[in-house]
Amino acid sequence: MTARAIMQATDMQRALTRIAHEIxxxxxxxxxxxxxxxxxRGVTLAxxxxxxxxxxxxxxxxxxxxxxVTMYRDDLYQQPTRSTAPTDVPVSIDDMTxxxxxxxxxxxxxxxxxxxxxxxxxxxxxxxxxxxxxxGHRELPIRADFVGKNLPSAxxxxxxxRLVEHDGExxxxxxxxxxx
Amino acid sequence: xxxxLSTRDVTREEAIQLLDIAEDMSAVNDREVKKLPALRGKxxxxxxxxDSTRTRISFEAAEKRLSADVINFAAKGSxxxxxxxxxxxxxxxxxxxxxxxxxxHGASGAPQVLAQSGWIDVPVINAGDxxxxxxxxxxxxxxxxxxxxxxxxSRGKGLDGVKVNIVGDILHSRVARSNVWLLQTLGxxxxxxxxxxxxxxxxxxxxxxxxxDLDDALAQSKxxxxxxxxxxxxxxxxxxxxxxxxxxxxxxxxxxxxxSLPAKTMVMHPGPMNRGLEISSAAAxxxxxxxxxxxxxxxxxxxxxxxxxxxxxxxxxxx
Lengths: 180, 319
Known about the structure:
The complex is a heterodimer.
Chain A: E1 2-7, H1 9-27, E2 33-37, H2 41-56, E3 64-66, E4 97-105, H3 109-119, E5 126-134, E6 146-150, E7 157-162, H4 164-167, E8 171-176
Parallel strand pairs in A: 2-3, 2-4, 4-5, 5-6
Antiparallel strand pairs in A: 1-8, 7-8
Helix pairs in contact in A: 1-2
Chain B: H1 12-28, E1 43-48, H2 54-65, E2 69-74, H3 82-96, E3 100-105, H4 110-117, E4 124-129, H5 135-150, E5 163-167, H6 174-185, E6 189-193, E7 209-211, H7 214-221, E8 225-228, H8 244-251, H9 255-259, E9 266-268, H10 281-284, H11 291-310
Parallel strand pairs in B: 1-2, 1-3, 3-4, 5-6, 5-8, 6-7, 8-9
Helix pairs in contact in B: 1-5, 1-11, 2-11, 5-6, 5-11
């Protein structure tokens, strides 16, 4: 198994800054925005994005939350029992623009689950999707609105997003695993 | 986790996982839409051979909040002998295609029999069997203690070093047994306080200390938690103590005893309470009492237990 570095800390910072600008452009500002990260690393990325947004628009405050999708997954009976993570949505999402944040977009099934989870929480004005890496291989008609980096990959490869808060350093790498 | 029959065979990792999942489930109970789709399309039968209000309602609420279909089976008044009736009932349910059984039975070991009999191959949750175990009650007690002690920082934690006194009718109490094993697994120190007539013979093999004197026990062990047990009149077929007044004076959490406790000591009771017998109203209605929290937490913990036994890959059995 060999690991190949794809993004360094500075690449990641630039990508997040660009995503923040794109969010502001499409939302025409920072008002009525809420960022909901999908645990674990999506939540961390959502907090970083909110910080950047607030630095671009001084005086703005963008609420950040976490949205656990475990109970909405379609593979609860194919995988060993999954542990859950907290869902913490600080403000009502009704009539807000929700930006879902995750580290890697792959089959799209997690996002499908997240959309269902959102339905139980309220009726947002719009839902957008921001991901740090899009590795392709979609199994559902889902695409991201904001992408840090497109990473065409093979099924057998693993994309590892490493974040200071969890792994001690920032970076994205590909593990080339032989078996699928 | 395939079944939940006894807290004795639950590992520390499993116990903490269940409590952590219950944390997330409890957040759902505060939401506008109190429902999760995890068990959609699964049928759970509540098989109650013994009277119960709160446990059955609690399981039913938990099942419905996880979107399971619920069948309630109350076998009250059934005169068929234990083995046969259980077998017949179970085979009938198996033929109907249920996905899990929650069972309460007056005979100790009935859930175990059900899980191992081969009459039905689905997860079994013990909702109280005779004087043996009541695992979800122990989990909701542990959850309540952890939440009071650690608040929002509860996740991942056990109950290491927490001093718990369990007081009263240990002999007939499945709640006490389940609590003893689970609390030990989570690292708590348990002391049982009861008259010698209400302690089981094998108590010296349990991982607990024992006291016969409540005032001594409270003064010396300085417990973080005092758990009062119900005097179970329906199982009292012998003279275990002279009369109720004497019991209350010696082993009840009377008003005087309660006021002598530090203000941070938790007072627990699994309910239903015999006010004035094992617990005074002063104790039961105080802010130190967790009685109503225990009920609320019961739903969250049972959601977590149902989720853990029902999801995951099913072992393929070839027979």
